[in-house]
Specification:
Blueprint: E1 12-16, H1 22-31, E2 44-53, E3 56-65, H2 76-79, E4 84-90, H3 94-110, E5 116-122, H4 134-144, E6 147-150, H5 159-169
Parallel strand pairs: 1-3, 1-4, 4-5, 5-6
Antiparallel strand pairs: 2-3
Organism: Equus asinus (Donkey)
GO molecular function, one term: GDP binding
GO cellular component, one term: phagocytic cup
């Protein structure tokens, strides 16, 4: 059995319509914390977390990009070269599901060819005021080959499952690449030799 390697590269992106809970998902995943008064992301923030996946350790390097339209033009610098993208919508807001489809279209047109896409329907703790049926999200995810999970950052529902699902979709690199012992490197490759970095 090989030693578990840890990826060295940034690059998982999260996208959202503003206010759907993307930053809360990242905060819950990385810090196991929920803030009712979290401020909107300005530009982008960056967080990391290393998690076990089978016999390996996977290092998630997460760019949490702003959802506001005025920051839309900045998004490509974060998703180019990323191994995966989490696109978030609010299950209580049908409009956010339409916006999600625009992000998917952009990623398919301008993102990395083999990017893993995960769709997170957040705020599943508010299912009594649901506007987006899970069936619709599943059908759409299947049509684009994406992972789909309903989450609640507030109640810590399916957050770990979302990122574990992404880990399972990303193929391991050659064990000899950059001496990484079979670990998965996630994200934006640099043009320099050695470990990938931003």
């Amino acid at each position: 059995m090989q030693d578990a390697g840890v990826g060295q590269a940034p690059g998982r992106c999260c996208f959202e319509d503003t206010g759907v809970g993307k930053s809360s998902i990242v905060c819950r995943f990385v810090q196991d914390h929920f803030d009712h008064n979290i401020s909107p992301t300005i530009g982008a923030s960056f967080m990391t977390k290393t998690v076990p996946c089978g016999n390996e350790l996977h290092k998630f390097l997460i760019w949490d990009t702003a959802g506001q339209e005025r920051f839309h033009s900045l998004a490509p610098m974060y998703y180019r070269g990323s191994a995966a993208a989490v696109i978030v919508y609010d299950i209580t807001k049908q409009d956010s599901f339409y916006t999600l489809k625009k992000w998917v279209k952009e990623l398919k047109e301008h993102g990395p060819e083999n990017i893993v896409m995960a769709i997170a329907g957040n705020k599943c703790d508010l299912s009594d005021i649901r506007e987006v049926p899970l069936k619709d999200a599943k059908e759409y995810a299947e049509s684009i080959g994406a992972i789909v999970v309903e989450t609640s950052a507030k109640n810590a529902i399916n957050i770990e499952e979302l990122f574990q699902g992404i880990s399972r979709q990303i193929p391991p690199l050659d064990p000899h690449e950059n001496g990484n012992n079979g670990g998965i490197k996630i994200g934006k490759p640099s043009t320099q030799a050695g470990p990938r970095c931003c």
